[in-house]
Design a protein that fits this description.
By secondary structure, the chain is mainly α. It is built from four helices and no strands. The chain has helices spanning about 1-15, 20-45, 90, 100-120.
């Protein structure tokens, strides 16, 4: 009993000497327990509503109606006949032969890119 009496006396003295620290400790303790309760509630698995499974066979009481196809496909063809190759006359407007100067500039640019990629590789 003497041990509990001395502990009680020390606790009363501490509360009287430092009420601000005791208030802060109390608030932190309450917030800790509130957070603990919230975490327990949030992590609890929700209970599934159990409904009995009924196995019913489907019997049509009227003719099944197929919905009408959309009007999008009227002017749309999912496939077409493709030519295997273009004719020379079809290619001419889109293709120009590069000059020698452009080819040298392109070669230098490609060599610089390759040198940068390779770097100091052995």
């Amino acid at each position: 009993m003497a041990l509990f009496d001395t502990l009680g006396d020390h606790a009363r003295d501490f509360i009287q000497e430092k009420p601000l620290i005791v208030a802060i400790i109390g608030i932190v303790t309450l917030l800790f327990f509130a957070a603990l309760i919230i975490i327990v509630i949030q992590t609890a698995k929700p209970r599934a509503n159990k409904q009995p499974f009924r196995n019913e066979t489907f019997t049509a009481d009227a003719k099944l109606l197929i919905p009408a196809a959309p009007d999008v496909e009227k002017d749309y063809y999912p496939s077409r006949t493709v030519k295997n190759a273009w004719q020379e006359a079809e290619v001419a407007p889109f293709f120009t032969v590069p000059d020698a100067e452009s080819m040298k500039n392109l070669e230098k640019a490609n060599d610089a890119i390759a040198a940068e990629i390779i770097g100091a590789a052995p």
